[in-house]
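User: Can you fold this complex?
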Amino acid sequence: MPYLGSEEVVKELRRALSNPNVQADRLRYKNYITKVIRYMTQGLDVSALFMDMVKASATVDIVQKKLVYLYMCTYASDKPDLALLAINTLRKDCADPNPMVRGLALRNMCNFRMPGMTEYIEQPIVAGLRDKASYVRRVAVLGCAKMHSLQPNTEIDGTIVNELYALLRDPDPVVVVNCLRALEEILKDEGGVVINKPIAHHLLNRMKDLDSWAQSEVLTFLLRYRPRSDDELFDILSLLDAFLLSSHAHVAVATLRLFLHLASAHPTVQADALLRTSAPLLATCGAASRELRFAGLCHVQQVMRSQPGLFGTHYKRFFCGYSEPSYIKFRKMEILVELVNDENVALVLEELRSYCTDVSPELAQAAIAAIGRIARTYSEKCLDILTGLLGLKQDHITSAVIQTFRDLVWFCPQSTAAVCQTVGACVDSPQDSEGKQALLWLLGEHGDQISSAPYVMEGYIDGLKTELSSAVKMELLTAAVKMFLCRPAETQDMLGRLLHYCIEEESDVCVRDRALLYYRLLQRGVEETRKVVTGPKSDPSMSVLTGRQEEPISEWDSTFNTLGPLAGCDLCPQTAATSAADQPSCRAENELLPESTDVTLSSPDDAEEEISLSLGPPLSHETFEKMWLDLETLHRQTLGFPRPRAAPDTLQAALQLVKIQTLAFTPGDTVPWKAYIYTRSTETLILAELLQGDQQAPGSDESLVVSVKQQPVNQHAIRGFPSRSVVYRVCFSQVNQTNYTFVVF
Amino acid sequence: MPNHPVPVPSSVLAALKNKTIHLSAAKMIHSLFLVNASGDIFLEKHWKSVVSRSVCDYFFEALERATEPENVPPVIPTPHHYLINVLRHRIYFVAVIQSEVPPLFVIEFLHRVVDTFQDYFGVCTEAAIKDNVVVVYELLEEMLDNGFPLATESNILKELIKPPTILRTVVNTITGSTNVGEQLPTGQLSVVPWRRTGVKYTNNEAYFDVIEEIDAIIDKSGSTITAEIQGVIDACVKLTGMPDLTLSFMNPRLLDDVSFHPCVRFKRWEAERILSFIPPDGNFRLLSYHVSSQNLVAIPVYVKHNISFREGSSQGRFELTLGPKQTMGKAVESVLVSSQLPRGVLNANLNPSQGTYTFDPVTKLLSWDVGKINPQKLPSLKGSMSLQAGASKPDENPTINIQFKIQQLAISGLKVNRLDMYGEKYKPFKGIKYMTKAGKFQVRT
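Assistant: Here's the predicted assembly.
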């Protein structure tokens, strides 16, 4: 680029432009002007030629005029005094018989960004607003906005505003939209253009004459309008209906946004609009342009926050193509995780498995993390895949798998045993610091279940001198102390060495302080240390059960069709929230909170009547059956909601977390659907049957009926019934994702 | 968990969160920068005040972070602006946005700009843009004013600014006239906004091209994982006056997700599945559609492959045979097979039964220009690959990308039944052409 030596170039051009011979030859003259423009667009400063260029504006050649205008607009603010010389030519052009010349001159005059222009352009603009050629009117209308921005602090000219409002009725559709655009800018301080009922309806009726850009903008302006009555609302919606299926994705999406906004009080209308737009949205996700595909995916992700089921059957559309850019693949994986259900889980996992060996380590790791997310619901299948990946012996894959295991164990305690077995058998260890931290956390937290844990850890303690990351050292300290608490004999010696090294030789202050802390803690006694160091081994909140819930549309419709979601600052709240919680080191606070191992259920109104449940030894099928037949039903209640449509694994895991054991389920959608569950409370065993769709039980067509039996009968529990019933909210994450209330007695 | 390829600086995030979401549509596109593959800005255009080139530094940062040129995220937030870019023909079109705008709007607009350039110059390359810099500026000036899209229909634009042709350049040079339309486009005054009035032709003709692109992923065993067809009907209508056309299909129910040119009367389509419209003058896209139900999509080619690597051996086997299927007797032409072989492959020694193949040992890209598939003698490519000595067996077999064309066939089975014209007296010449192309057609091995 000719940033250097620009003076030479400018000198030469000036010589040529001022040469009378060149000026006489129109073609040569124009060629030099083109050259100036070319240099200007390449970033060379040619403002020194201003005088010569102004002279060139006096010509009949429109292209040459355009070029000179372009030049003048660029440099006018630097040379205001010289630019004034050009104004006369421009004003003369504003009265040219050719509307094209009039428009051109007016537009460029308005583009001169220099103070004091207003007095020259006001009169031509006002004349232009009444011009008979729509081309000139279009330019003049926008000129009003430009004129205002030249002197932003002056008072708003009421006559111009009124004129613009009147021009909203112009026969030319572009003039109409330009009026909106100009008014919006002029009235910015007053909150923009006012959309009242007549204007709103006028715009709605003109919609079909507008080009797609204008449609999209008008739809955005209409967001300001609130219909007075439901009748009016539905009139508007039916006018807009066809635009939901516009061939331009941006119009379809803008219409959808307006629909969601207007129909905020009518959820069924909103749902219907989402359903109808799902086709154009999916089409955008498959568009030829990557950028459009990406934008489409981001919008789908937003819609899925409220309507996760909408795209379930189209999951194959979100499989990644080999040559797609990574930003699309990341989004697609995020979507796939949300779309998993009983039917497609095998296919989706197989697909994700094939991404795990992608050339790009980031993508491979994202795919592994995605499998880990699915594992929270379908642990067994995913664990097989993840274990298989460890066999590839690729550093980045091993590290990602170990990190995924850590998160999985935290969110999904029932997979602990399998994970521990795999980790114990895994030969090679991760090389990066995140992977090391994850492995150490697993070793420390579940050392009792991994037989080789102390030996693996010893390796890390021996290699401490070469370890660079202080985060790994901190994690190692915590893990070693935890391990000492559960396997003291094997760990005592190495813990001593570790603490000695960290206190005496470590240069990092944080690590040294942490080691000192543990050392002093251990001096207080093992039990004291245990109280402080150990914490819950899994996520104590029930987020594993809740999974993704349907969010109300109002949560996201304000950012729908805006830049936020695409720029990555409106990631799904879940991913944002869990990424913080995923780090075990962030859990330090949780770990310090003492928590009893039994879940304590307390009724909100009566603190005395606490019932604590525990799992206790499992019952055999025969014992359960015998007891069920022997005992009398103590209580029966219709719950008023249908059975959870979750996978049996999920349901079982969920109930286990609230200390309820499952004995048997009716598989799938069989009617009647039954489930037998049991739990133990203080000195009593509680058995229950859940039933739906049985002809004999009244009220069970639509909702669950629960029958409860108890052995031995706990008078305390019966006397206070039903106020004593403890309401427990269990939210099932799968398929229909609705809240379920479970009543446990 | 890596959620997003590009970590957004926290200061930017904070700035974005505080940004109030105003329902304003003002100031759409502030400036446009054109950046070439080597990261040089070679053209800039400002519709409002001049934005310094340094704003593109944020874009260059993202470009540096991206491993591949196409991995640059389309929306890049900066403290004061958003940068929205599209990559076409190895040129980044970077729009500078100062306030909240609908993203799809800007992306589609940028694509429209590129389409227009392509329409005007035939190709949209850096050289073509630099050669036609004057027309480029004229176009950008007409397409946007004050940052708002104005005239983007190629019909109307071509009347405002005549496209450069070699002949016209010569004529202009001799006569000294210019390539600016002397008259204003009359379309602006017509009752039908997309059609100008007073159109006159000596030969009245209407051509429709049904073009389908098939996107598919085929797995190892040859079964289809996903397949969908994206179709368009492009029209070239040169008819005198105000003709009113109706076009009907033999099997309109095939079409999913149809989207129309604004000229199509949507009510009529919903009720009768007939396309009724007053066409724009010249070239336009009448409709685009999808066919995605799995069972409806016929896969026109099959691949028999045997690509294997043995543990401990420095040789790998490579066998590939292509064949037509479900093509309704039409020939599969312009077949091009490409595949990214694993990193461990040093060289490939193959023997094509027809066409030529190349293997680039640096990029490991194998491409085989097959040409036409002859059903009697199926094309095959067989041979061996030599692997790096001592390297372990590659984890995964390569994916094969196939490109092909089939003339006179719409693979979805879509057929035009008839085309009628009302409103004018003359008899137009009508033509319909079908074509199927491979879009993203991949076979996993």
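The CA atoms of residues 673 and 692 of chain A lie 5 Å apart. Chain A touches chain B through 117 residues (CB under 8 Å).
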